[in-house]
Amino acid sequence: MDLSVDGVSVTRGGRRILDEVSLSTRAGECTALVGPNGSGKSSLLRTVYRAYRPDAGTVLVGGRDVWKMTAAEAARNTGVLAQEQHSGFEFTVFETVCLGRSPHLGTFDRFRSVDRRVVEEALEQTGLVDLAHRRVGQLSGGERQRVLLARALAQEPRLLVLDEPTNHLDIRHQLELMELVRGLGVTTVAALHSLDLAATYADSVVVLQEGRVVATGAAESTITPEVLRTVFGVDGRIDTDADTGRALLNTRPLCVCPTRSCHWSCKPSDASRVSQM
Ligand SMILES: Nc1ncnc2c1ncn2[C@@H]1O[C@H](COP(=O)(O)OP(=O)(O)OP(=O)(O)O)[C@@H](O)[C@H]1O
């Protein structure tokens, strides 16, 4: 199911936090939203899963305006792993993942065998089978993050919206989560702080800065030395590992030393380039 965000602006607290943002993803593709803290990644995702209503612009999922759907209809399409989901700690992992089936069940519908099968598969995919009967409140941050992903998968979404899904995850689980998401073939939009995960796993990257899109396209044309410097405030580049083809982010703090004798052994040309910015 494709996603199209067209000219979306959002104002909160008297400030424009998204300014005419547009992006489009093709069905089955993974799009990474990257940008420094406060650049608008979560706010943009919130417009997609109907938590922030835009002042202007449209969000179309499968060609339909999400704000013209009912909440239940939108939930049947879109699975969400949001930040700050701190409730429901008294439920077990199994019960929490079962909640992902709610959009597919009427108020008085019983849980069917198909629902149980989908929940079990989501637990399996996220490596949670052994934790199924533990209370969510007793889990580590990383285990809890996987529970939230499992709940989103149990929705059988046609669009997956992930806000910093690798938060709290150790390196193995970060890679497994990204592999899993890629392998699902479900259209995915994910806010990621890790630029190398974005470069390795996303079909396209959208770079946000102060609520605006400043670059969009393949990782090599968006996460450039220029973007790293001007948007993220670091010197660096993305290299490709010759053996694995994986992206390797090579960065260092931006050189600002007027003396040209800093810890990072800046060449005079580096210092003069920085002073011209
Ligand atoms: N409900 C709100 N009221 C006021 N300001 C808000 C609201 N929601 C977001 N903002 C502001 O909008 C800006 C973008 O926030 P957002 O959470 O979208 O950034 P982000 O790129 O996801 O940041 P981070 O990487 O730190 O998670 C921030 O300055 C934030 O304070």
UniProtKB/TrEMBL annotation:
<dbReference type="GO" id="GO:0016887">
    <property type="term" value="F:ATP hydrolysis activity"/>
</dbReference>
<dbReference type="InterPro" id="IPR003439">
    <property type="entry name" value="ABC_transporter-like_ATP-bd"/>
</dbReference>
<dbReference type="GO" id="GO:0005524">
    <property type="term" value="F:ATP binding"/>
</dbReference>
<keyword id="KW-0547">Nucleotide-binding</keyword>
<dbReference type="InterPro" id="IPR027417">
    <property type="entry name" value="P-loop_NTPase"/>
</dbReference>
<dbReference type="InterPro" id="IPR017871">
    <property type="entry name" value="ABC_transporter-like_CS"/>
</dbReference>
<keyword id="KW-0813">Transport</keyword>
<protein>
    <submittedName>
        <fullName>Iron complex transport system ATP-binding protein</fullName>
    </submittedName>
</protein>
<dbReference type="Pfam" id="PF00005">
    <property type="entry name" value="ABC_tran"/>
</dbReference>
<feature type="domain" description="ABC transporter">
    <location>
        <begin position="3"/>
        <end position="235"/>
    </location>
</feature>
<keyword id="KW-0067">ATP-binding</keyword>
<dbReference type="InterPro" id="IPR003593">
    <property type="entry name" value="AAA+_ATPase"/>
</dbReference>
